[in-house]
From TrEMBL:
It comes from Agromyces atrinae. Residues 37-427 form the AMP-dependent synthetase/ligase domain. It is an enzyme of class 6 (ligase). Keywords: Ligase. Signal peptide: none annotated. InterPro entries: AMP-bd_C, AMP-bd_C_sf, AMP-binding_CS, AMP-dep_synth/lig_dom, ANL_N_sf, ATP-dep_AMP-bd_enzyme. This is Long-chain acyl-CoA synthetase. It holds the Pfam family AMP-binding. Residues 478-553 form the AMP-binding enzyme C-terminal domain. GO terms for molecular function: long-chain fatty acid-CoA ligase activity. Its EC number is 6.2.1.3.
Amino acid sequence: MSISSPYASKPWLSAYAPGVPAEIDTVSQTLTDMIDASVATYGRSVALEFFGAETSYRTLGDQIARAAEGLRRMGVKKGDRVALVLPNCPQHVAAFYAILRLGAIVVEHNPLYTARELRHQFEDHRARFAIVWDKVYDTVAGFPADLELQRIVSVDITEALPLGKRLALKLPIPKARRLRAQLTETPQARRPYPWSKLVGHSRISRRAPRPGLDDTALLQYTSGTTGSPKGAILTHRNLRANAMQGEAWVPGLKAGEETFYGVLPLFHAYGMTLCLTFAVSIGARLVLFPKFDVGLVTDAARRTPPTFLPAVPPIYDQLARASERGTIDLSTVRFAISGAMSLPVATVDRWEEATGGLLVEGYGMTETSPVALGNPIGPSRRPGTVGVPFPSTEIRVVDPADPSVERPAGEAGELLLRGPQVFQGYWGRPGDTAATLLAGGWLRTGDIVTVSDDGFVSIVDRLKELIITGGFNVSPTEVEETLQSHPDVADAAVVGLVHAGGGEQVTAAVVPREGATFDAEALRDYCRLHLAAYKVPRRIIEVDDLPRSLIGKVLRREVRDRLVEKG
């Protein structure tokens, strides 16, 4: 029997920090309008910093316009998908907004993916154009002709370095050679089209179409709530709304004066919104790092101290320990927001003791652009919970077996979300979309939660069996299929086991084929050939059999329990 939602009155509003509104203003800007406004307002201010090289908002706007014109002449039209396979770098930011300027659709990719993983996504979205890191150019150029990739732009990220660092990379010494090999590689495949040529055009023609609020801006790949990776469709309205919600959530932000550290990858939904849209929308300086490294962050902090740091718990732990050793000063960080994985209370305590600032946890998913809940930035925060709904966001807690049935307050159930940041569905997957988006715009999260009387949400469990490691989603099925393709493996089950740091470790239970010798390290090596590093099982454990249901389905929960017992 259905009952009225106990959360319709939004009891969490009393926990909001002073000045945070219950609702955000109506979204009136596309992301293209947003970046144009920032360029006009903050033109002389620094928009991007990369190893000390600075790019002003005015210069960034010019690069975006030139790249857009280059793409237009290349044949990119409104509605076309353009793939980005880039680490964090200034070219990534310019390419992102240049694609949107034409009304085209950005498709983000992890540049550390294997060829098989990238090809799977390209086969799904069928983009005809790609802008890629020169280190992965040969991989993408090697895709079969039936993918119909018309043009691949190659990006050498060292071109964005300060002159002195570019010259240092050419020195004939081992350290310089190693660093250069990490940052760039000369493609061997067909002659690449360089980024420098793309931005060598004049500014964009006024004839080029511009996007509308409800046009698709981004396909963000996620394992979502149903297993295999799929493209979440996010519109300009979705992404702009989430940036506005983020701005409303953080009282005391100083437009044009903040310094955000981009240690999260921009190709990830969390890094994309907190850095590519939110930071730029308020005229912040975005300090970019191609990867997280304590030494790189320490060097940058000496030049440009951070004020806003979005990250994941392991990063906060490492930086807090560096602060305790006296190697980095984090006292300038006023705002720190953790997401993508569980935040241990011990990490909060360590960070706040080291910095004197607040560290709060939020909750979201790619399908919510991605942030939907957050702890208030103030004394009403509640460590150990994922906070309360953002402005203009509603929640329900329902029976997982029948989402039309509300659960009473305080009783565990599946979390449903609704708000302007909720996605439009999965690219080319109407069945998955229908299973995830319910009537009235409600999103099934697949997470089992409890909600306190005053609206604070605590995660109890996940209906979905995704593993969250280092802030990334790992589909157990994908890892299992890789292991099962090994000639020595008869069967495999993959689960996430919680470790002391608060995240999960990918762990595999493997049944060897009869007569085969079990070699865990050899299986890990095999996985490394086919999977990104974060998907490779940290532990592979030999078992005699796997628990199954009456219809033969492996019971991953029982597998997890058995592995926990084994220690």
